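Input chain follows. Return structure tokens only.
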Amino acid sequence: MGLTRVLVKDGGFGTQMTVHVGNSVDGDPLWSARFNATNPAAIISTHLDFLQNGADIILTNTYQSSVDGYMEYLELDEEQSIELIKNTVRLAHIAKERYLTECYQSQLSVQEGYPLIIASIGPFGAHLHDGSEYTGSYADFVPAKEITDWHRVRIEACLEAGVDALAIETIPCQMEAEALVEMLCDDYPDVKFWVAFQCKDENTLAHGETFADAANAIWDLLAERNAQDKCLAIGVNCVHPKFVTPLFKSLNGDREVGEQIPLVVYPNSGEVYDVVNGWQGREHCVPLASYVPEWAQLGAKVIGGCCRTYARDVRHIGEAIRDWNKLKKLS
């Protein structure tokens, strides 16, 4: 599944889901993962919104799903929690089947194998519900094995339910990324994945490591294990879009086109979150679609959106990507 063309990833799942459930998502300790249990129809509808607006890739709504989270906040037992995670993946499959049926009925062609369903594997910090996915502070006191053991349960549930790859995403610290990549190489040698870091500025991860150093460390780790073909891309998500180009230049700026590390990017809309007033500044946001050519030029193979990006934003990103892919074919 080496990526030959630039692919369109979906947008912010919790953001688009508000179209179906209202603004009851933010502030919940389970965030959008609660609705996997309480409103599965809204999960399917949200996936469909993205597919109908041109997404090649949808991420399962498992970012904040965890056994301990479900046991604590939904009062499920371990077995029921694992089953809920598997069922969440099945909801993405239902949406995909509905979409493909719609396409067939409308005589629209879809490339074979698409859309892809990729499991969202959010960071250890997401289930702590203390904002530490944006600081990575837990890397200073939680051992790597505890982190990978925690991830393993959810990863296995998603793999069992059937996904095309894993999105290891919003990772704030180099240690967690390295531990996960080592675990995947050792224990799941056939599984494809990408790694997307959470960065606090145009140079550094949330925890303080340099993005280029962390990304290169992952790429070298994969090279040592002869496993670079397992990694679809390395990149960033849930960041301000203005940080992306400098981050990518720091990694791929001096590499020839053929030597570039494949990149993935799905930033926020450009709005800034204020604890008191919520998201601010939509009117000043530069449309994400306008960044597509520069990000693709720097090696981006997957482009989509994260927080505050809706299905309509994905449609515009998709149009820009299709123009780029056409240009590359002609050149």
